[in-house]
Amino acid sequence: MNTEAQQRDRSSRPEPVAVEERSRFALVVWITRWLPGGRITLALLLCLLFLLFLNVFMVQPFQIPSGSMENGLRIGDRVLVNKLAYRFGAEPRRGDVVVFDGSGYFGDADYVKRVVGVGGDHVVCCDQKGRIEVNGRSVDESTFLYPGDSPSSVPFDVVVPEGTLFVLGDHRSRSSDSRDHLGSPGGGMIPVGQVIGRADWIVWPTDHRTRLERPDAYARVPGPDGAHG
Fold first, then answer.
1. Which part of the chain is CATH 2.10.109.10?
2. Is 138 a residue of the active site?
3. Is 173 a catalytic residue?
4. C or N: which end of the chain has fewer Cβ atoms within 10 Å?
5. What is the pLDDT of residues 106-124, one digit of tens each?
6. Which pTM does this prediction carry?
7. In the structure, what pLDDT confidence band is assigned to residue 53 with cuts at 50, 70 and 90?
8. Domain 61-218 has CATH 2.10.109.10
9. Catalytic residue among 83, 103, 113, 184
10. Sequence-distant contacts of 102-109: CB under 8 A, at least 24 apart
């Protein structure tokens, strides 16, 4: 048997990888010929698909519809909502600004509020100085509360069920929040599963662009079991 001829025969055959690459290239060429606008249209479609992927799974823009979170978030501000913030076992924390679906709880719309209590927390308004208490610790909300607003004109004393959140707006006198729905289905609490994500950035207008940080006011609040959160 002529082994030299066999070797020449093998070497003359195209590598499978090369064939596959040519097939992919041919497919791209066919698509660009078929699409009006060719490669430009294809590039735009790929960009749109990428943006759709981001919007569905990672980051979603949200426009502030009301003054309930002033002064931090103003009417018309655009924020980026981090949809991965509470995936992979993470949970909302006190002080986070969250966007959630209020259907069946607040109303058929998306809302933005600040988390004041998480599952197991005992939230009371108010202490002798008019401040909200969480698990027996008074919270100084002066750094984000709307100037001139009191922590609440409505007294309440609630224990937040596990898997839910007690949420309030920063502009308390203009916010419809957990206080206003204590007698509604769910008792004013929002299930964690209704949370779309955490508002992390104000991106528009440019003169108001900033990162939204969790305030230090809740850092010393103990957990329901007495451990610091």
1. 61-218
2. no
3. no
4. N
5. 989 999 999 999 999 999 9
6. 0.76
7. very low
8. yes
9. 113
10. 102/190, 102/194, 103/194, 104/185, 104/186, 105/181, 105/184, 105/185, 105/186, 105/188, 105/189, 105/190, 105/191, 105/194, 106/176, 106/177, 106/181, 106/190, 109/65
